[in-house]
């Protein structure tokens, strides 16, 4: 009888351990070169607000790790509280997905030095941003030129620059749409639609939504995109 009881207790403990282990599906590791002391917060967006889902204390060892539970791939943020600085260079965004992800960076250039590996969605998002940054830089350049034209009251130049700005925006939106459609198998597709071109003509959002694979359509951002499109249509 005692042997049976011990066996039952052992099985119960094993089941409990298995259940506990199954609650996490993302193992996050990394290293921040030069950081001796500080606090890291892994954050996610909840109702437009960043909310910490894990806290990591750094005290002497710049390496860190965290085990997280992801219901679906999503954009997370690794916020560094330096303790002695209010630097704006303190929040690395990364597209998290189940598996193993590693973030290597430095204290001096926390965002620009960040190297993220282990996430296909993040690889694609970085690929997208390399081109998207060109559109942003071009727009900033045009804004500067337009400002000078306004100061000199050069109407012809102002109109010309305005036309170039519209063309730049159209190219940016077309690129984002095509990128999302071409990567319909990944959750980054609906994320880009929601974060970059939410105000584009509804027919383009519709095209992205209909191109998503069933897996992506049932993801966090896939569902949000479907809901967003439905809300726009209901307003008409």
Please explain how this structure is put together:
- The structure is a single chain.
- The protein contains seven helices and eight strands.
- It has helices spanning 2-21, 120-151, 155-182, 188-196, 202-211, 214-217, 220-235; strands at residues 26-33, 37-46, 49-59, 63-68, 74-81, 91-96, 99-106, 115-117.
- The chain has two domains: 25-117, Immunoglobulin-like; 122-235, no CATH class.
- The protein is globular and about 60 Å long.
- It has 236 residues and is α+β, with helices and mostly antiparallel strands.
- 22% of the residues are buried.
- Helix 5 packs antiparallel against helix 7 (220-235).
Mean pLDDT: 90
Q: Main sheet: which strands, in order across?
A: 4-1-7-8
Quickly count the helices. 7
Unreliable stretches: 1-21
Oligomer: single chain
Strand fraction: 25-35%
What is the terminal-to-terminal distance?
A: 71 Å
Domain unit count:
2
Fraction in helix: 40-55%
Provide the succession of SSEs: HEEEEEEEEHHHHHH
What descriptors fit this protein?
single chain; 236 residues; alpha+beta; Immunoglobulin-like; 2 domains; 4-stranded mixed β-sheet; 4-stranded antiparallel β-sheet; 7 helices; globular; disordered N terminus
